[in-house]
Amino acid sequence: MNDPSTRYRIGPGFQLEVFETYEGMSRKAMEIVSGLVRSKPDSLLCLPTGNTPTRTYELLAIDRNEDPALYDRVRILKLDEWAGLSANDEGSCESYLQKHVLVPLGVDEGRYFGFDGNAPDLEAECRRVTGLLDKIGPIDLCLLGIGVNGHLGLNEPAEVLSDTAHVVELSETSRGHAMIASVKDRPRRGLTLGMGDILRARKIVLLISGKEKRIILRRLLETGVTTMLPASFLRLHPDVTALCDRSASGPHVRGNDVGTM
Ligand code: GLP
After folding, report:
1. What is the pLDDT of residue 27?
2. Quick check: CB of 48 below 6 Å from ligand 1?
3. For this structure, is 257 an active site residue?
4. Is any atom of ligand 1 closer than 6 Å to the C-beta of 51?
5. How far apart are CA 57 and CA 85, in angstroms?
6. Mean pLDDT (10-residue bins), the chain, 261 residues
């Protein structure tokens, strides 16, 4: 399907590409991931969960069908996890990644890294992930979704943001996420890579889809860098591509310093 996009310059290293459809946005994200893996087969991909990236992952699985060995060396790092949930819990990020990425792309245990949301000592678990990232990093490509409150991973709007992996108190907005809607004891905390971990990635692709993201996308385009909008820190990174669909952008992309490319 042909979905021509319009590209905008948000900042020196930050561009926004608007697609008419979710499918077009997802296809572009898939092409970026696939292209990177073709040029660097053992790329470390940091991947989010949620509704937004699901079609991208389906398209990656189709890509693998066409080139079965393509993802044989790729390494996957989980961006975040709900505290208290494990692979057996349907709402966990772990079970989402198993279903949508690890199984379809044939990623074995030795090439998958991430938080155990059920670890007995969550702070120690975050320290373990920080140590791990020191060894396996840097992240080659960090794919991100955005929370309706502007969070990245589970880095919630706050006065102070954390550099490395840490435990967070979830905002009520995040606790309302569809992934955990049917979990009996809805998590109050989460584990997430820190803003520094994300910003140290060589390349970042941010996916924004759906009309419920329209307000936060507008804020992202209009505000400077502020801890109250963690996604605004992406302005500081040299290589960020935000991909969105028309339902998220609305009919016109407006912002303080947005220009068509
Ligand atoms: C959750 C996830 C994030 C994700 C965000 C957006 O909080 N932990 O990693 O990016 O929500 O989710 P969605 O794409 O469903 O809107």
Report:
1. 98
2. yes
3. no
4. yes
5. 22
6. 85 95 98 98 98 98 97 98 94 97 97 97 98 98 98 98 98 95 93 98 98 96 96 97 96 78 77
Location of structure tokens 């969960």: 49
* DSSP for residue 171: P
pLDDT in tens, 12-29: 999 999 999 999 999 999
Tell me, which fold does domain 5-211+227-249 have in CATH? Rossmann fold (3.40.50)
Cis peptide before 138 (omega within 30 of 0): yes
CA of 2 to the centre of ligand 1 (A): 27
* CA-closest residue to ligand 1 atom 13: 50
Would residue 156 show up in a list of annotated catalytic residues for this protein? yes
What are the sequence ranges of the domains in the chain? 5-211+227-249
Which residue of 148, 151, 156 sits with most ligand 1 atoms within 8 Å of its CB, as the best mutation to test the pocket?
151
Instruction: Tell me what pLDDT residue 260 has.
Output: 81
- List CB contacts of 94: < 8 A, sequence separation 6 or more: 78, 81, 85, 86, 87, 114, 117
